[in-house]
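Holo model, magnesium ion. Inputs:
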Amino acid sequence: MPLPEGIESLLFTAREIQARVLELGQQISRDYAGKTPLLVGLLKGSFIFLSDLARALSVDAQVEFMVVSSYGNSQENSEVRILFDLPVPIQGRDLLIVEDMIDTGLTLAKVVEILSARNPRSVKVCTLLNKPSRRRVPVAIDYNGFDIPDVFVAGYGIDYAQKYRNLPYLAVTMKA
Ligand code: IMP
Ligand code: MG
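Output:
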């Protein structure tokens, strides 16, 4: 299958992603046995990951979404803004934040801070991808799909300038 224009190479196949998502689902189901976690998906990048992860869970789970500002077109924009907040109270809930990618950590650190202030019972973080070499602020990651190097990726919900979210695999883009 030829790669689309703008895509440099394959990073993880759909099959590899699916296997890892199932493992994460099993691990999360064990850890949350008897509980009803609230999955907090950060849109848009996490929408496919969350869809697959939710179906890999054997515990009762609920799903809500938030929209926070991310890169736009500038990788240097470090300001994090909530564009769409959770529509439900979270006091006493077991939150599992579901993110597509942790890069500098700035987005997630801010989201954890904001949500923790609302007195949930617990806050954990699940990310599909992690770029440890790019970290600027520390973030505790409870569930991590894959560590990746400092490359720009797209596919499986993740965009490059709003493109490629629909690819069923994860790929490295031409952006160096
Ligand atoms: P952080 O605040 O730097 O950790 O940025 C996290 C967000 O940046 C992710 O949720 C993505 O939306 C975006 N991002 C970081 N790296 C990439 C990438 O390689 N491809 C697409 N989006 C990325
Ligand atoms: Mg994101």
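Helices lie at 14-31, 47-55, 106-116. The chain has three helices and nine strands.
Archived with the compound record.
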